[in-house]
Amino acid sequence: MQVKRRLGPKGQIVIPKDIREMLGVKPGSDVILEVTGDEVKIKPANKPETYFDRFGNTSRKLTKLVDIKKVIEEEYR
């Protein structure tokens, strides 16, 4: 898909609504601008969720002490 847009006085462009919806970006979303030669790619900056992100967002409480060094060593095996 190609869409032509005019650059505004502050160097801004408006991403059309249908493209924003396709990319899943909304006002306030972070995006990545990637420059290759004379092209600019705009893509969502959706970071993959990590184990620690999931762990930090849980409502469960720890019921015993965890040896984090042991957990990390097991992950690397």
Structure in words:
By secondary structure, this protein is α+β, with helices and mostly antiparallel strands. The protein contains three helices and two strands.
Give descriptors for this structure:
alpha+beta; two-stranded antiparallel sheet; elongated; 3 helices; 29% helix; 2 strands
**What is the residue-averaged pLDDT?**
83
Q: Structural class, from helix and strand content?
A: alpha+beta
Using DSSP, what is the number of strands?
2
| Proportion in helices | 25-40%
Kindly estimate the percentage of residues that lie in beta strands according to DSSP.
15-25%
Q: What is the overall silhouette?
A: elongated
Number of helices: 3
Q: Biggest β-sheet, characterized?
A: 2 strands, antiparallel
Using only CA atoms, what is the Rg?
21 Å
Read across the widest sheet, the strand sequence of neighbours is 1-2
Taken in chain order, the helices and strands follow as HEEHH
User: Unreliable segments (pLDDT under 50, ≥5 consecutive)?
Assistant: none
Distance N to C terminus: 44 Å
Quick structural summary:
With 77 residues, the chain is of the alpha+beta class. It contains 3 helices and 2 strands; from the N terminus they run H-E-E-H-H.
List the helices and strands and how they pair.
Elements: H1 17-23, E1 31-36, E2 39-44, H2 51-56, H3 68-76
Antiparallel strand pairs: 1-2
